[in-house]
Structures are given as C-alpha cells and as structure tokens.
Amino acid sequence: MKLFSTKKASPLVTFEEAIFQGLPPDNGLYMPESIPVLSSEFWDKVEGMSIQKIAFEITKAFFKDDLSDDVIQQIIDEAITFDAPLAKLNESLFCLELFHGSSMAFKDFGARFMASIMSYFLRKSDQKLNILVATSGDTGGAVAQGFYNKANISVTILYPKGKVSEIQEKQLTTLGGNISALEVDGTFDDCQALVKQAFLDLDLKSKFGLASANSINIARLIPQSFYYVYAYSRLKGLGKDIVFSVPSGNFGNLTAGLIAQKMRMPVKTFIAATNVNKVVPSFIESGEYLPISPSISTISNAMDVGNPSNFPRMESIFNNDINQFRSSIKGCYFTDGETKDGIKELKEKFDYLACPHTAIAYLGLKKYSTENSGSIGVFLSTAHFAKFLPDMEKVLGYTPQIPKRLSDLIGLEKSSSEIKASYDEFKEYLLQNLI
Ligand SMILES: *Cc1c(COP(=O)(O)O)cnc(C)c1O
Fold this sequence. Notes:
Blueprint: E1 3-5, H1 15-21, E2 30-32, H2 40-45, H3 51-63, H4 69-79, E3 86-90, E4 93-97, H5 107-125, E5 129-134, H6 138-147, E6 153-160, H7 166-173, E7 179-185, H8 188-200, H9 202-207, E8 210-212, H10 218-221, H11 226-235, E9 242-247, H12 252-262, E10 269-274, H13 279-286, H14 311-317, H15 322-328, E11 329-333, H16 336-350, H17 356-371, E12 376-381, H18 389-396, H19 404-410, E13 417-420, H20 423-433
Parallel strand pairs: 4-12, 5-6, 5-8, 6-7, 7-13, 9-10, 9-12, 10-11
Antiparallel strand pairs: 1-2, 3-4
Helix pairs in contact: 3-4, 3-11, 4-5, 5-6, 6-7, 7-19, 16-17
Bound molecules: pyridoxal-5'-phosphate (PLP).
Cofactor: pyridoxal 5'-phosphate
Protein name: Threonine synthase
Keywords: Amino-acid biosynthesis, Lyase, Pyridoxal phosphate, Threonine biosynthesis
C-alpha cells in the first residue's frame, strides 16, 4: 500500500519511506491511500482474540505488501507486550486502561510499535539511525522505553530543565545504553526548535541518519487502533451501541479510533474531550478552525495543544466535510476546576483513581450520557495517575499508593547532559555523540 500527503503536493511513498521521513516534503501528513476493511469473518470471531492477535490482523491489513507474516508476528511480539484491560465501573461504564506498558502511558503502543518496525527496516539495510525527540513529558518516556536496546539506533531526548515531573525525568534519564537525555536550560518550545533546526542542518544530515519520533509518524498512529478493536471485542457480546470518549491533545488517539471505525468497527460516536485548549470542540460547534497560540497551561498538561497536529488527518478521513465530522465526533471541554471535581467523583462514586486526562474523558462521557441513554460508554485512560502525583495529592488530600515500578524509579540516579538553549552547543553535542 502507498501513502499520500494530506496536502496532496508530494509524491506517493511506501510505508518504509513514510516511517523514516516522518513528514512529507509539502509539510502535510502521510495517510494510507485507503484504509483496509477487515473481513466479516474477522469481526465475527473478534470476541475470542487476544490483543496481540487483533494487532497482527490489523498490521497485516496495512502492511501485507511490505512485510511477511513472520516479520509482522515478530514486530507484534516485540511491541505489544502488555494488555489494555477494561475496568468495569458499572453495567454501562468502562475505563479502557492504556497505561500498562513500560512508560505507563498510552504512548507506549505507538512508540514501541514504531521502534520495532524501524529496527526491522534498519537491520534489513544495515544502516544506522539517530532519533531526535523533544518532549514536554510523556512522549520522551515512551520513546526512551520503546527504543531502548534497539540495534543500530541511538536516541537523543531533549527536555526542558525543571519543567517535567520527577517521575517523567527519571524515565528519560535512567535507562542509559542507547538512550541519552539532554536537559535544556529553556522551555519545551526551545527544545522543539533545536530539534527542528537539526533536521534542517545539511551538514549534520550529510554525516548522520536522522529521524524524528513524534506523534505525527504514521507508525505511531496505526497501533493505536489495536486497543479500540480490543475494547470492542470485549463489549460486543453485550449487544449495545458503544461510545468512546477520548481525552485529546494532538488527536492522534482519536484519529486512530476513526481508523478502527473505517476498518468497520461499529461505534455509535466518539467524544473529543479536551481541556480549555478547545480548538476541535469549537470547530465542531462553529465550523471555524481557530488555533490557540500560545496554548493554555492546565493540569492535564499532555493535552495543552493549541493547534492539534492530527487535525488534517481527521479532515482527510471526513473528506473535508464538516457534516461528516459532526456525525462521528461530539466535542466537549472542561476547566481545571471541573477536572479536579471529576477526579474526586471517580474516587468517591466508583473508588477509581484516574489521572487528570482520564478524568476529562470521564466527564465527556458523563455529559453525553445525560442527553443520550442506552449505550455502553468507554472512556480511555491515557496515563497512570501516579505520573501526576503532586496534582493527585492536592485534589485527593492524601498521597495515593503508587506502583512499585514507579517508586523504584525515583530511587535511581539520573544521568543527563545539560545544555543551554543554543543551537551551537546542541550541534557540538550531536557531532560528538551521534552514531
Ligand atoms: C499525549 C497524551 C494525550 C493526548 O493524546 P493525543 O493523541 O495527542 O490526542 C492525552 N493524555 C496523555 C496522558 C498523554 O500523554
């Protein structure tokens, strides 16, 4: 299968090319020429399938011209090493827990899959690759864990000094091996600008293989459809319509849900639940797309996005037709005050601890359910609450117990190099350290 650019001004490419290029030259986003429909036999039998089996079938539907069954199986075995359990809160309310991977956020699905598939293509051609990534928190951890120990790949992660949580920093700075962390004396935007400049530096590009691992890479998007189908498979037997509420920032997660729907997964509707960076909910209401710049800081900070990068992909899926958009996605947004009340309510009503992002998805579903009844609601939990401990403590009034995996991490010693937000200093570092 070939991929096109949503701006339609770049040539078609193969999956391999799209994965290593990241962005097409016209600055659009790569999308598969067609989204494969899974067979009715698949949908008939899906109830008994493991998430790994579902992942295999979906990957095969996209990559069957590019990868053999054996290679696809290898990639799934390597990448999907954890489950996505559905926590049942009551007869019609479920939380899809996407935080059981190595960095305890849903970004593990995309990052691990991308790492495995890149590593396969590199082994085949015996090339070396350097991944450069700027992170404001969760992306870096998932990328670090996903690429850890992958042959022929070196990863450099830039993060803003003092602006990521302690657990997030430890996730970036304690692996060692092929993962290096750079602590930048500046903001997340500075980190992103440094990485962008490196990708435009012809001198660096002539010396090293460089690639990005950010969320617009198509190899991160496809594996996020696995868990929607998995959730559907576990709820199908109840015989009711299913509504998915997705806490959204760059809208990769929700776009993956739309892809699953295109593959013929039955869904009543998606709920795009955001914080006050409500660009997409406002677009659904008014038909006008108005980015927010700079984005507004909130306690659901992984969703502080003022110009969602996957918006063009959603437009492409809906053929640029606002009515199609509106019939598939309902929008809603919540303030920090409402988010905190949501966290408290989940704890009090259901004895369930959820991170701020997850609480927003819950609130989206609750709002929808007051006007619509009779369906099963699934809200996606995008991270473990312990990754946002200081805010959780403030809201709950006590310190919840955190998983041993995370408390052990706090005890490890951090290893990172500190640089100023200066391109000269960054480039010097890269010239010395890239492979
Ligand atoms: C990245 C992230 C989101 C937003 O996901 P998108 O795919 O960018 O919409 C939500 N919650 C958490 C915890 C995240 O890390």
